[in-house]
Amino acid sequence: MISLLADGHILLEGVPGLAKTLSVKTLAQALDVPFSRIQFTPDLLPADLTGTLVYNPKTGEFDTRKGPVFASVVLADEINRAPAKVQSALLEAMQEKQVTLGQETYTLPKPFLVLATQNPIEQEGTYPLPEAQVDRFMLKLRVDYPTKDEERQILAQMSGVRLPEVRPVADAARILGLRDAVRMIYIDEKIREYVLDLVAATRRPEDYGLKVKELIAFGASPRAGLFLLQAARAHAFLQGRAYVTPEDVKALALDVFRHRILITYEAEAKEVTSEDLARKILETVAVP
C-alpha cells in the first residue's frame, strides 16, 4: 500500500510457496485495475514484455501489438531468471512510465506498479539484477515464513469448500486522488536533514562515528533519499497523520536501504549484510 500511494515499485524476495504471486494478484483484484503476470525465463525476449511491431500483409503497414507491461499492476515473477537485456526492458517502463515501440512512445496506464519477485536460495541459472534496475525499486521486501498461528489460518481459509472472494474496494481514479493527498503531507526541515544524514552515513560512515567504511563498497544513491521521504509520507498518511515523524522514516529505512548499500568482499567474509549495516546506521545517526 505504501508503494502504491508513493508511486514506487517493489522487489519481493522470498522462498517459493509464500504466496508472493497470490498477494500481488489479490491486490490487483481489490483495486479493480488491469493486472498482468509475466513469468521470467531464460528464453524470454524484451518484446515479450513491451510488445512489438507486426507486419500486416493486407495493409502493407506495421501494426502495434502491446505487451503485458501495459497494465496497472505488473507481476514480474522470478525476475532474476531472465538475462539482463530482458530485465532492462522494464527500465524505461518503471522510470518514465512509458514504452517506446519503433518510432512511437506509448504512455502506460495510471497507476502503474511493478512488483518483481526473486528466489534468494536458488542461484543456479539466474542472472543478478543490474544495479541500475535494482535502484529503481522503491522498496525491497523480504517475505519470511508465516508463524504457526498465521499458517493455521492459511490452512483454514485455503483448504475449504470455497476460496475467499476478493471484492474491489477502490479504482484507479481513487488511487490517483489518494496520491495527491499523500504529496500534501507536511515534512519538516529537520526530517529532511535526518534523511540526508541517513543517506550520507551510508557513503561516509566515518563522519558519523561508524567504523564500517571497509564493509561498504557503495552507499545509497540520491534516489534513496527521495524514495524514503515519499514512503514516509505514505506511512504517515496510513497512520492518519498530516505530518511526517522520525518514526515514519525509521519504519521504512531498512526497506529503502536494503538493496542500495553494496557491501565489500570483507563484509561477505564476516557475514555482514547490507541490512545489518543499515540497522547500525539507524542506531547511530541522531534522531531529531
Please provide a written account of the structure:
The protein is 41% helix and 17% strand. The chain has 288 residues and is an alpha/beta fold. A hairpin with a 2-residue loop joins strand 6 (98-101) and strand 7 (104-107). The relative contact order is 0.15. The mean pLDDT is 88.
Q: How do the strands and helices of this protein lay out in sequence?
A:
Elements: H1 2-5, E1 10-13, H2 20-31, E2 35-39, H3 47-50, E3 51-56, E4 61-66, E5 73-77, H4 84-87, H5 89-96, E6 98-101, E7 104-107, E8 113-118, H6 131-134, E9 139-142, H7 148-158, H8 172-183, H9 189-203, E10 216-218, H10 222-238, H11 246-257, E11 262-263, H12 265-269, H13 274-284
Parallel strand pairs: 1-8, 1-9, 2-5, 5-8
Antiparallel strand pairs: 3-4, 6-7, 10-11
Helix pairs in contact: 8-10, 9-10, 10-11, 11-13
